[in-house]
Amino acid sequence: MAIILGIESSCDETSASICIDGEIKSNIIAGQAVHAKYGGVVPELASRAHQQNIIPTVDQAIREAKVHKNEIDAVAFTRGPGLLGSLLVGTSFAKSFALARNIPLIDINHMQAHILAHFIEDPKPSFPFLCLTVSGGHTQIVLVKDYFDMELLGETLDDAAGEAFDKTAKILQLPYPGGPLVDKYAQEGNPDAFSLPEPQIADLNLVFQDSKRLFSILYRNMKRKILIFFRKILKMYVPLFRPELFLYY
């Protein structure tokens, strides 16, 4: 029986899991509410929060799996890509734990883990297959030939799709995390309401920076038109209308 402790700390969530013979027995995730008032992840604050969360998160994962730390056979951890300070916390803890127990240390590529997560539950994909990885920091199209034989066919040339969602949410002043809300409202909207140019990129690469810029311009123009409309209404119906009031918006 193989018992593996998994540690993930690539961004703003501290996660620990116990896997026994390929079956997930516990999966504990500690979030970080500290980023809410900034509308996005602040790397320095993220690494400090990981330092506070890593020990209780691992401890809870071990307890929920009903195993003892001395029974763990290996430690797997995210080595990257991700936020440097956040990765350092998870890496340091994993190395210390493995060294103290004299057990193997397994370093995991963050993006490969996203792809191989498809094999945790049934139905499992068969090789070869195409995989689109979309996150706050990466957007890639990958040809997966085998577990460790992967070919990158295309990727974003500037920002990731997840980052574009988050920045759009910040422009709209949606609560953090705003990406899921943008996705939700987009599904309820009219896809033909606005005509926006599509970027022409060679091969299978992607770009999202232009989309963010165009949305920002569109949003500002809409706000301007709304203000002009209300100015007209107020001039018609409010004798004491003062245009300088709009300087506060």
UniProtKB/TrEMBL annotation:
EC code(s) of this entry: 2.3.1.234
Keywords attached to this entry: Acyltransferase, Hydrolase, Iron, Metal-binding, Protease, Transferase, tRNA processing
Key word Transferase present: yes
Superkingdom of the organism of origin: Bacteria
Biological process according to GO: proteolysis; tRNA processing
All copies of domain Gcp-like, residue ranges: 24-208
Cited Gene3D superfamilies: 3.30.420.40
GO molecular function: metal ion binding; peptidase activity; tRNA N(6)-L-threonylcarbamoyladenine synthase activity
Reaction it catalyzes: L-threonylcarbamoyladenylate + adenosine(37) in tRNA = N(6)-L-threonylcarbamoyladenosine(37) in tRNA + AMP + H(+)
PANTHER family: TRNA N6-ADENOSINE THREONYLCARBAMOYLTRANSFERASE, TRNA N6-ADENOSINE THREONYLCARBAMOYLTRANSFERASE, MITOCHONDRIAL
This protein's name: N(6)-L-threonylcarbamoyladenine synthase
